[in-house]
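Morning, I've got a small favour to ask if you have a moment. It would help a lot if you went through both lines with me. Thanks so much in advance, here it is.

***
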Amino acid sequence: MNKEDIKIEKAKHKIFLAQDNFDIKLPNSLFFSEYLKIIKKFGYWFLALENGDLQPLTPGQYYFLGREYATSISYYELRKVIKYKLAWGKYKKYKKDWGDLYLILCQCNNEEIETLSKILKLKSVSKENIIPELISNSKNLLEFFDDHPSYNDILYKIKVKLKLDTKTIEISQIEKSIAIKFLEQALSRMTEEQKIKFEKEIIEIVNIEGGLKYKVGTVFTTLTAAQISGFGVYLLASSSLSFITGAIGLTLPFAAYTALSSAISVIIGPVGWIGAGLFTLWKINDVNFSKIIPSVIYISWLREKYSKENSNNFQ
């Protein structure tokens, strides 16, 4: 670049450097305070450099982008840029790992955030606490000081623990498979008479809330189908959670769950006999599956509800 080009480019840099308070679209608590300050202050500038909206002008900026530069970088600038690279690297990792879920949480209403907060047994109800709590409960004792796992890592741990034989890598399908696994296990322990009564309760909910028509004898086949979608995911999550939460002594506030959990208590009495079989996999010092599995099942419904395909169907 000639002198005039450099002058113009420097002016462009100043414009982006003046844009502080970068919107990270992630919980602040995921980051060390020093890294968070760097990301908030320089995020728009980092992004412009990476996207090619700005051209690097100094050895440090070339180093930040991982590109060669003719002049060696000073020790002072190197230390500063290394810190910038580490902070920005963390942001990009967590954005990739958790950005989609955070966007879903941002669309949730108060009842939905309250439901997830109850499942995770949070003291305060806030979308900002959901992801950090999922991360915390997904680590065992030996992993406590490791870097934050991704949401995919959590799903993989659940798949291994439940011995789920699913080849799909699509997050929504894995979530549904987990919910289906629990519903199938619960149904396998019920008598035919109990299944019929439970099915009738689901059909009643469908008639009231979904405006759909399910025939007797087809409900469970529909709910455990791999390609279930739309309102069916709501029923699947509600049905699975109505068994799981009873076994861990939890009550949730949304309508279908309330109706189904009440029906279960009448049809089969206390659900401890289901819980005894399903919850022996949770051990002290292990991953807290009693929190992350119900959370993932409920998230499966939220993901379906706020997907582009259903954006106008469940508002």
In short: Residues 75-107 form the longest helix (33 residues). The radius of gyration is 24 Å.
